[in-house]
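Section 3.1: Structural characterization of target chains.
Under the original work plan, the team committed to producing a structural model for every single-chain target entering the pipeline before any wet-lab resources were allocated. The record below documents one such target. The sequence was received from the expression subgroup and is listed exactly as submitted; it comprises 586 residues.
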Amino acid sequence: MNFGPAYPLMRYLAIALTALAAACGEQPADPAAGREAGIDPAWFTDVTEASGLDFIHQGAADEQLRMPAVMGGGAAFLDFDNDGDLDIYLTNSDQVLPESRTPGRGLNRLYRRETDGRYTDVTDTSGLGDDGYGMGVAVGDVDNDGDVDVFVTNFGRDGLYLNNGDGSFADVTAVAGAGIEGWSASAAFCDFDRDGWLDLYVTRYVEYQPGRRCSGKSGAPEFCGPKSFRPLHDVVLRNQGVGQDGSVRFKDVSETAGLSTTRAAGLGLVCLDANDDGWQDVYVANDAYANQLWINQAAVPGGGIAFRDEALLAGVAYNLHGQPQAGMGVVAEDLDGNGALDLFLTHLTNEANTFYSDIGGGSGYRDESGASGLGPSSMPYTGFGVVALDAELDGDPDLFIANGKVNVARPVAGSSLPAPWNTLPEPNLFYRNDDMGRFVRLEGEAGALNTHLEISRAAVGGDIDGDGDIDLLVANLLGPARLYRNDTPRAGKWLSVLAYDPEIRRAALGARVTVVAGARRWNRLVTTASSYLVSHSPDLHFGLGDVSRVERIEVRWPDGSIELFPGVETDRAVTLRRGEGTPSDG
């Protein structure tokens, strides 16, 4: 166990240099100062302009209301240069769809975080300016060389970019066999066959027909819904490792894995070990179709990947009334503090967001949307991205939801977007966990999170300034990406944990980390994919309330083996290296 960085020395230096830069220049707002003055400080501050993040999303914002134009806008926090801080990647689209595109199209953008806390656009030198009609992004080390690679999903052909280790990326889509065609949405790197190489799961949406137009009940033009087209099946690519020529290769095993016969308009996803058997499963949020819980069928003779959908058995296919919903984003977090990973999904206007509580013991899930307060309050909004974070460090996860309509409505006052796009902006939602089983919406206290009325899509969390709390990045259709610094008044301590496997030289995606202090246990999943169209850092952030020292940390590695690591002081980042803990039978 290392008491320091994720990629040890560099992460420590990044945090130290950030603190030094702040000491020498402008200081961030001190929430404590507001409390002493009797002022209720805002929890989040918009630092987009101050940080140098100048990304503006481009899209086909015309009156033809073509469906792909209203769905995109992905984002990622990643450390592409291994300097220990979080860089930013954002997907872009274009003013026209692929069938009629011309040179000058919108490019995805990569921003490097500098030691002074500002972001520099390094797209041109990085090779990551994918010019497809951008949707989402997945980040992971596919060749186990110690740096992260990037997979981009598109309406069109997807792309895979290998990190060269010098700040640049190589497009290996063709040679790697990763050029999925069609309409892909979210993607996740997970090791499904436990061979040490990250496989790739990609949700896919519908067989969109550009010439088709739809209308609402009044007969006015409207965006088409997913039922207007034939849905696509998801794709799983098995990583076959690096060959003698030094190239990594993937094989499409969707048919043998059991995916090709099920079509369901997939959007968000998360990898997790839902049945605690030591094999990674996948939960998919589908739009207007039953959600899927693909249970990994474990070792396949001769090597391979196979799944079986058990969402209906587990109680997570439909809502409480037995109806499919418009599933958008999803997270797997212990939202009710019972030690099991729950599922939370965002939905369309007039469909309550859904909170599935894992009741433990392999008994499946229970719909707690109403009792938690998360369902009824979300009815007026269309949710996409979702982030679980302990904003005030009191020991309970809160929720942020990025909203934006997909159905034409009344114009929103103050919107500068052209009609009818000016009817789609909505306020985002922030819920505080009251530690009593309910979530309470914060409005004024949330600060800048509620100030901007935009068409928000992707949302991702990460500690951009190394101060121990989670900041937020939001991607907006036809508008600026927003970076929100967490200035929440602190109610406790924190701990950042990276579960690292030195044998494969990367974070142990799929591991489960439990922090123990007295009778309290905080349980989190190591993943870079959740929410909607995003990728985030594999570092796990724990808000711990008044705990000044944790007693121990338990890591359940992706293969099901368990190691115990000794207790540490809080308010720090630690790296837990596989093989350095004490083996345990659980």
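DSSP finds eight helices and 40 strands in the chain.
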